[in-house]
Structure formats: C-alpha cells, structure tokens
Amino acid sequence: MMKRYIEKWLSEEKESFSGWDFSRLNGRTREEDTPWDYKKIVLDALQEDMHLLDMGTGGGEFLLTLGHPYEKTAVTEGWEPNVELCREKLGPLGIRVEQVLDDTKLPFEDGAFDLIINRHEAYDVSEVKRILKPDGLFITQQVGGRNNDWLSSFLIPGHRTEYDEFCLVNEAEKFRTAGFNLLDQQEAFPKMRFYDVGAIVYYAKVIEWEFPGFSVEKQLERLVELQKTVEKTGYVESLEHRFLIIAKNR
To answer: Which of 33, 62, 201, 214 has most Cβ atoms within 10 angstroms of its Cβ?
Structure first.
C-alpha cells in the first residue's frame, strides 16, 4: 500500500504549474476564509474610469474576474513562464504587460495609477507611492512570514524562514512613515487542511520558498508520518498567515 502512495507522491512532484492556478488541488484541500473579502474590497474601490495596476498578476486569473476596461489596465509579473502566459493571454486584449524583476524600479511614470492591487506579491513602499496618483489607493493582501510554520518545520527540520518579521504591524508602519493614510489593516491565521499527502507534495514544490530543497526522496520519512495522520484524522492541518492593508496616497 505504501509503495502505491509513494508512486503517487513522485508523480505529484513532477507536475507542472503555470499562472497562479491551483486547480489541481480542488477538492484535496480546504482553506478557511479570511475575515475580509479581498475581491469585494477591490470591486468596491474600483471605478470604470480608473487606471488600474495588478502587481504580480500570475496568469491574470483574478484580474480578469474584475471586468475592468482593458485599455485602463496594466499588470506586472516576475516569473518568466507567467510573463509569457500574460503576453499571450492579456496582451491581445489591450492590457499592458510588464515583466518586473526589481520591485524598486517599476516601469511606469509618476502618478500613473488611481488604484494598485497586490495579492501575495512583493512591493516597495516608496515605489508604490511614486506611481500612485494623489489620493490613489493601494490594496494588498499579503502572505505573512509565519505562513505554514509548522508544516515547513515538520517537513524540513530546523528550517527557519527569513521572513519572520514580515507581518502587519511592521508593514503598516512602513506605509505610515512614507506618508500614506491607512484606511484598513487586518491580520488573520486561517486554517488550511490537506486531505491527501500528494496535495502536500504538489503544494510544497510550488511554494518552494516555504519548503526549500523539498523532495519526496529527501522527506520520505516525514511524508509517511503525514500519511499516518491522514489515515487517522482524515487530513493534515496547517495555519496560514495573511494580512490586509488599504493605504491612501497623500
């Protein structure tokens, strides 16, 4: 039986990933909702005549659900496979696509945008301020430094993230110091459940910065332990770390 599981895990390890599409995990994981609704917050702020930037758009999956005029929309993305995907999918629609490898040097003029949205993408506060219009809004939902702490350290004993200090209180202070008005700030630690160990393998390979050096071969004993947990309780549970900042440029 365990041999069959290991073969499945090795198969998951080899699966490719594009955009920011986790559909392979549909029905195999469950994420507890955050207390806020990111999409509703964005839609409530977004007006048809606004110039919109989506930072770290992935493959544009979320952006396209907003229905904003394409000619008033721009996106950034850093990962080369996603950049190519955006150029193929978003470029022909009239959406401006820019590859960004340095968050301190964004390829936009001063005061270019009324609204900048950013979900789980790096940012530089001073550069965000530069490209926002006066009274423009920056809405970001971030993955905090304690995301999946337990699962990461279980699979990779001794692992400590370099992002421990990345949390709401520290980031909010950066925006205040830069002269933003903070309209909202929230933090949460929602539960995430994995219903099969193969889902954990796939997730760990995609979110490689939380599981550096992960492989089925190296972490096999730990994966077997997680399989025993699934057989006993029906799932493996981890805690995510999320925070929200809505900042208005002055």
So the answer is: 201
